[in-house]
Amino acid sequence: PVTRIEQWIANPYAIFARDILRLEPLPPLAGQADSRLRGIIIHDVLNAFARGFPEALPEDIAAALMRLAEEQLRQAGADARSAVFWRPHLRRFARWFAMIEPQLRAGVSRVVSETPGSLDLELPETPFTLTARADRIDMRKDGSLALYDYKSGEAPREQRVADLRAPQLPLEAAIASRGGFEGVPGQPVSRLAYIRFLGRGDGGALIALGKKEPGELADKAVAQLEALVRAYADPRQPYRALRRALFANSAQYRYDDYAHLARVAEWSAGEGGDEG
Within a 10 A sphere around the Cβ of 66, how many other Cβ atoms? Predict the structure, then answer.
């Protein structure tokens, strides 16, 4: 899946441990309810909103979003403490979203949410299918597409996306422009952006990527992925455990379920954190 490509680039050993050795991390001894609820807030609530209002917005956007949020909290089995903690954060986000969403919907004919897609790479070394599930795709009246990724934590900095160290959105753009998402015609992608839940301050943030054209990013991301697939089609290619400064700000990279198996703490302290 497209969400694993960044990890494959940054830390091949984690891919080896999970997908080849089939080692699955154990669930945490203590539940991480707050982190889980944060993910529910940004993904399930916004997906439900887009599906409920794919073309026309409700009269009171904030109220509609809060109704969906309360329903998701109930479905998630949130205890009273968690619900009381999250409601003020949700209200701030809902007020922010009510201001920004009409701007995002301007010139949009329809919004689709949680849309599965795929892209087949026909390489002589090995066939490869990239899969994805786009958080949100806006079909614009000018014949282009806008892609949004929901973030409940940190969003990648634009330079990391431009350098293809965080290739998820560019790869989704490649799938979209080639007609790979269900129910979405293949059209040029005119916008890539993150919708981030903050809960504090303004409540949310829209992080648009504008340094490079989406089409250029998409083509470069596909070329990078093809090179990656070719490299690992060679059985002599090792799945190294890496700790490079290049990926130091990657959320996927910091929260590595397999770092202890690779003994990252031991060798990175002694070798300057380069590789092992």
Answer: 19
Burial class of residue 234 in the structure, from the number of CB atoms within 10 Å of its CB (0-12 exposed, 13-18 middle, 19+ buried): exposed
- Which residue reads 């998409």 in tokens? 218
Residue 246 and residue 171: Cα distance in Å, rounded? 20
Residue that has been written with the tokens 């400064």 in this structure: 245
Residue type, 24: E
Q: What is the C-alpha end-to-end distance of the chain, expressed in Å?
A: 26
**pTM higher than 0.90, yes or no?**
no
251 closest CA partner among 139, 166, 148: 166
32-233: CATH, from 3.90.320.10, 3.90.180.10, 3.40.1190.20, 3.20.20.70: 3.90.320.10
**Three-state DSSP class for 198?**
coil
Give the pLDDT confidence of 219-272 residue by residue, as tens digits.
999 999 999 889 888 888 887 776 544 444 444 445 567 766 766 556 555 544
Contact 254, 11 (CB under 8 A): no
Owner of token pair 């806008």: 146
Contact 2, 171 (CB under 8 A): yes
* pLDDT single digits (tens) 96-140: 999 999 999 999 999 999 999 999 998 888 889 999 999 999 999
Scored b (16 or more CB within 10 A) or e, 135-152 reads bbbbbbeeebbbbbbbbb
Neighbours of 251 (CB within 10 A): 13
Quote the CA–CA distance of 13 and 268 in Å, as a whole number: 15
**Tokens 């993910």, residue?**
39
Strand partners, 140: 108
DSSP 164: T
Beta carbons of 162 and 211 less than 8 angstroms apart: yes
